[in-house]
């Protein structure tokens, strides 16, 4: 983590090249097809089940920022969250799929595309590109909903490869001689009755209100920043945070502030950020946390394409997003 020396207690910047991955973050870490993925927790505690997970910024923001890095043909297993989960593609080509068995619907996203995955459905994703890819994630709430809810078959398959998830949410690797502590039971799998509460929306159900294409957003943000996720966003929702896209055409250099921490995440181009007491240059993959009340401004520092996602918390509960 790189901190500007003039305001070490305020602005915090996590560089893409300094991100610390965890390869044992989740229960499918040994499952073939999912055993090469890397999990990154950038802001907040995230939902990692491993004590090896490094957290870059612990300051509460009202939401969590993380990332997943995966080589081609590597997937993240079917799971659900109790709060919102938003992804945008930083690099690569990604297939997102959902439903109890992952066959209810799917969509393929490219660089800059964003998806607000409905809460309360099982979802997974895989890198279907030809190179290592990265997706950035925003999870609602400071505690990210209390963890991950796995599809039953994921827990069962993980057990066959040596990983056991305790009811406490902690992973134990039997291949390393680890065992559940006395008095601690394995995480119970959902019953067939409980599974009825997880809807199976089709691709046609999900796409209109939950997926936005980068090029469409860039066009909309030609003159003013476009609200992507929010009550009046392109993807209307109130998940406990708002997401906006800023481009070269809609950046003004005018300083402003928020009553809570905000986050800047470039997709393309290099961005100069100035605030009272310092400045910095952000590149794609960097994440900057700006504290509440600090006046700041951002604009592209070089020629070429430039777009940046901006995230700020709201007072809305970080609850369900699926409206049926």
Describe the SSE topology.
Layout: E1 2-3, E2 12-14, E3 38-43, E4 55-57, E5 63-70, E6 75-80, E7 85-91, E8 94-98, E9 105-109, E10 114-117, E11 123-127, E12 133-140, E13 149-150, H1 152-160, E14 163-165, E15 171-173, H2 192-195, H3 203-210, E16 211-212, H4 214-220, E17 226-230, E18 235-236, E19 241-247, E20 262-268, E21 271-275, E22 278-282, E23 287-290, E24 296-300, E25 307-313
Parallel strand pairs: 3-4, 17-18
Antiparallel strand pairs: 1-2, 2-23, 3-5, 5-12, 6-11, 6-13, 7-10, 7-12, 8-9, 8-11, 10-16, 14-15, 17-19, 19-25, 20-23, 20-25, 21-22, 21-24
Low-pLDDT residue spans? 1-9
Mean pLDDT reading: 92
Distance between the termini: 41 Å
Percent of residues in β-strands: 35-45%
Percentage of residues in helical conformation: under 10%
Radius of gyration: 19 Å
Structure description:
This protein is mostly beta strands and 324 residues long. The protein has two domains: 2-211, Jelly Rolls (Sandwich); 213-313, Jelly Rolls (Sandwich). The chain has four helices and 25 strands. The protein has helices spanning 152-160, 192-195, 203-210, 214-220, and strands at residues 2-3, 12-14, 38-43, 55-57, 63-70, 75-80, 85-91, 94-98, 105-109, 114-117, 123-127, 133-140, 149-150, 163-165, 171-173, 211-212, 226-230, 235-236, 241-247, 262-268, 271-275, 278-282, 287-290, 296-300, 307-313. It has an eight-stranded mixed beta sheet with strand order 1-2-23-20-25-19-17-18. β1 (2-3) and β2 (12-14) form a beta hairpin. The longest helix is centred in the middle third of the chain and has 9 residues, at 152-160. It is globular, with a radius of gyration of 19 Å. The termini are far apart.
């Amino acid at each position: 983590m790189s901190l500007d020396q003039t305001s070490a207690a305020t602005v915090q910047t996590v560089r893409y090249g300094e991100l610390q991955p965890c390869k044992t973050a989740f229960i499918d870490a040994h499952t073939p097809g999912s055993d090469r993925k890397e999990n990154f927790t950038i802001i907040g505690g995230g939902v990692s089940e491993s004590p090896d997970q490094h957290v870059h910024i612990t300051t509460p923001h009202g939401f969590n920022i993380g990332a997943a890095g995966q080589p081609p043909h590597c997937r993240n297993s079917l799971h659900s969250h109790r709060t919102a989960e938003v992804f945008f593609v930083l690099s690569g080509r990604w297939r997102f799929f959902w439903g109890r068995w992952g066959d209810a619907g799917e969509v393929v996203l490219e660089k800059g595309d964003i998806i607000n995955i409905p809460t309360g459905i099982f979802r997974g994703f895989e890198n279907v590109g030809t190179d290592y890819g990265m997706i950035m994630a925003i999870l609602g709430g400071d505690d990210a909903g209390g963890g991950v809810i796995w599809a039953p078959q994921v827990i069962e398959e993980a057990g066959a490869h040596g990983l056991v998830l305790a009811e406490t949410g902690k992973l134990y690797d039997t291949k390393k001689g680890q065992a559940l502590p006395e008095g601690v039971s394995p995480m119970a799998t959902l019953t067939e009755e409980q599974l009825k509460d997880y809807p199976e929306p089709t691709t046609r159900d999900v796409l209109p209100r939950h997926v936005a294409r980068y090029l469409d957003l860039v066009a909309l943000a030609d003159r003013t920043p476009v609200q992507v996720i929010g009550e009046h966003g392109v993807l209307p929702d109130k998940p406990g945070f708002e997401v906006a896209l800023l481009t070269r055409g809609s950046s003004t250099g005018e300083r402003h502030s928020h009553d809570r921490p905000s986050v800047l995440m470039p997709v393309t181009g290099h961005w100069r950020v100035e605030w009272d007491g310092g400045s910095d240059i952000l590149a794609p993959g960097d994440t900057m946390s700006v504290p509440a009340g600090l006046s700041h401004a951002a604009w592209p520092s070089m020629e070429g394409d430039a777009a940046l996602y901006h995230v700020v918390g709201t007072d809305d509960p970080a609850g369900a997003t699926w409206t049926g």
